[in-house]
Amino acid sequence: MKITRDLYQGSLALLTDFYQLTMAYAYWKSGKAEQEAVFNLFFRKNPFQSGFTIAAGLDYVIDYCRNFKFDENDLSYLGAMEKEDGTPTFDPAFIQYLRELTFSCDIDAVEEGSVIFPNTPMIRVKGPLLQCQLLETPMLNIINFQTLVATKAARITLEAKGDPVLEFGLRRAQGIDGALAASRASYIGGCSSTSNVMAGKLFGIPVSGTHAHSWIMAFDSEIAAFEAYAAAFPDNCIFLVDTYDTIKGVQNAIKVGHALKANGKKLLGVRIDSGDLAYYSNMARELLDEAGFTDTKVVASNDLDEHILSSLKMQEASIDIWGIGTKLVTAYDQPALGAVYKMAALKDEQGNWVPKVKVSQQSIKINIPGFHNVKRFYKNDKAISDMIYLESNEELAEELTIIDPYDPTKRRKINPNDMESKDLLVPIFKKGKKVYSRPKLEDIRNSTLTNLRRFDKAHKRLINPHIYPVGLEEGLYHLRTDLVLKAKNYS
């Protein structure tokens, strides 16, 4: 499914920052537009003080790149731009260059549903400098948000410990785009369904939902509302029981449940959306069990997140299904991931790759130079360490030293012959042609759950998670250090 086409029905080439276009023009003017470059998209810190991050958004990136072009409306808009002196901002010959532009980059990326960590490349782009530059803003826009929400969803579903988590944040999401992307990312992160019907249609996510308080208020009594709903949907009866009095609401649900049972149907559940969820869920469970409705589920909602869910689990709340809205789809406690897109290498006139480094007073902002990949090592089916290494090093040493990029005293010895390993970056496009078989969204969700199981519990705990070791292969570490010293004129 062409997601961006389905949503927007046209070119998205102008979904970018203006300075990307001014740089593209300047590259063209200076004769550098076709010079080959490598850029990496990565983030510097796990979100939510988490011990891990879940990759999401690649499918949108694939659609964007497959359909990348400037249409005539785009070109007319750019051609009409003027500088302060009234002359065109862009030379007509540059507009013609954009008209003939065909996407021709190589893209390698971490697959959606992968567990990833700071500084490792999520996406590597190689191709003409002008094209690489124009991809920066849209890629960051896509990856930053979906990865953030997928990570939030994974944290919530881990705390649910196998209970279904329903995403229903549409009404509180950040606009139409945010709602659709959040529903998709939430499913990747482990949610079971969404309330967003359009997301269900576009992405094939299971949809769920019953009724709101307004349904109850539209009738003369709560039990009449339950009866009418049961008549309309006898196979989907989950009653919202806290419109007036939660305990009486559960009792009324039980009365209608007996009528359903007499007709060969089931009372599937009761939902509590306010108040002391631990207390009322336990009361509801007691009443349901006493009435013989031991299979009826208790559903809870009301501004939940992973921390509240964890607390309710510790209180032994009798909650079987969790409805999560606002704090999931808005990534409530951290509004942005902060992923960046940095040049890592540039090909010179002799055809050699020249590694590039950005120097900063903040060591965390010094990028990793060169054409590199990330290799994950496993032992006894558990992930033990990630190594960022130069792909030019075709044969790795029998014993590897992995060095923390910001603290050289943190080192780890790896014997690659004693364990399994895999490269996380996989080919997506070669010279502009898609070479990647896109998995189904359900398979991506299953991959997330499988991948998380391969990490120690210490990396997945909510509070003060153990830091998963990610480092630079020793040669790459020294290259980076030398380039930084050279850039600072210390050598």
UniProtKB/TrEMBL annotation:
CDD domains: NAPRTase_A. One of its GO terms (biological process) is NAD+ biosynthetic process via the salvage pathway. Keywords: Glycosyltransferase, Ligase, Phosphoprotein, Pyridine nucleotide biosynthesis, Transferase. Residues 167-347 form the Nicotinate/nicotinamide phosphoribosyltransferase domain. It comes from Echinicola vietnamensis (strain DSM 17526 / LMG 23754 / KMM 6221). It is an enzyme of class 6 (ligase). Its EC number is 6.3.4.21. It catalyses: 5-phospho-alpha-D-ribose 1-diphosphate + nicotinate + ATP + H2O = nicotinate beta-D-ribonucleotide + ADP + phosphate + diphosphate. Transiently phosphorylated on a His residue during the reaction cycle. Phosphorylation strongly increases the affinity for substrates and increases the rate of nicotinate D-ribonucleotide production. Dephosphorylation regenerates the low-affinity form of the enzyme, leading to product release. NCBIfam families: NAPRTase_put (TIGR01513), PRK09243.1-2 (NF006695), PRK12484.1 (NF009131). Gene3D superfamilies: Aldolase class I, nicotinate phosphoribosyltransferase. Residues 14-144 form the Nicotinate phosphoribosyltransferase N-terminal domain. GO terms for molecular function: nicotinamide phosphoribosyltransferase activity; nicotinate phosphoribosyltransferase activity. The keyword Transcription does not apply. Pathway: Cofactor biosynthesis; NAD(+) biosynthesis; nicotinate D-ribonucleotide from nicotinate: step 1/1. The keyword Glycoprotein does not apply. PANTHER family: NICOTINATE PHOSPHORIBOSYLTRANSFERASE. Catalyzes the first step in the biosynthesis of NAD from nicotinic acid, the ATP-dependent synthesis of beta-nicotinate D-ribonucleotide from nicotinate and 5-phospho-D-ribose 1-phosphate. Belongs to the NAPRTase family. This is Nicotinate phosphoribosyltransferase. GO terms for cellular component: cytosol.
